[in-house]
Amino acid sequence: MSNTISILGCGWLGTALGKSMIRKGWKVKGSSSSNTTYNELEKTGISTFYIKVKPRSISMDYSSFFNTDVLVLSIPPTRTDCVEESYPQKIEQVIKKIVEIGIKKVLFISSTSVYEEQNREVREGDEGAPGKAAGRALLAAEKLLTENPAFQTTVLRFGGLIGYDRNPARFVQHRNAVNGKIPVNLIHRDDCVNIITQIVEQDIWGEIFNAVSPEHPLKEEFYTKAAKISELPVPVFTDEPADFKIVNSDKLIQALDYRFAYNSPMDYLKEVEEWTYRI
Q1: pLDDT by residue (tens digit) across 25-76?
Q2: CA 112, CA 211: separation in Å to the nearest integer?
Q3: Can you point out the beta strands (E) in 96-207?
Q4: Structural element, H or E, at residue 271
Q5: For the chain, does the N or the C end have fewer beta carbons within 10 angstroms?
Q6: In this structure, what are the phi and psi dihedrals at residue 26, rounded to the nearest 5 degrees?
């Protein structure tokens, strides 16, 4: 095995993953669709390619990006009026290239937005009908990938990403009111990188996993602490009833024998509180 991994959509998460895999001895290829990101990516040691996936085609500088052992597909839906139609079409374009080149292992970065707000704990298989267009688009993309017999796909449904320069206090700064009694479904970027790495190294394919920190503090607790640490205004919270979900990651923990670096999002805030600078 040549130990080559290609990351289609090498953004905030993909770049961290690529740098980690390089340290483990893998050859890493990463794609960008903007000149600014492309130039920054080149400095990391990741072999950089320009690739822009469109609903009807893929624009790229070199097709050798797809000559790889593992393809990590990390291109989230964008905010367009027809995302439910355009995003699955983009995934179909990628699938054509996967089949053409003969890639056998695909890891698809999805989201917990595929779940409805069911006012209870949700596990893999509880998808239902997502309330947001992006969730419905991701669910359609998952189906296209997992049902194709030409390759094996493992789907990772990440919660909201936190860590490093992503200040969670800023997530809610411009909202008039935040429902404080809703639990959060978050995950630190370090855990995302570790989980992807373990799936690849343990050769776990053909699976769907939730990936969210096991503990789910309420929004009021989490965002109050985040705001105070960052010396930002504490959001206005409401106790009005609202639909919610608690995403369960037990399947992932058991399959990988995984131990979260950040068992609770509050662990990250405690860490930030000890830093000599603020994000």
Answers
A1: 999 999 999 888 888 898 999 999 999 999 999 999 988 999 999 999 999 9
A2: 8
A3: 105-111, 120-122, 152-158, 160-162, 178-179, 186-188
A4: helix 265-273
A5: N
A6: -85, 150
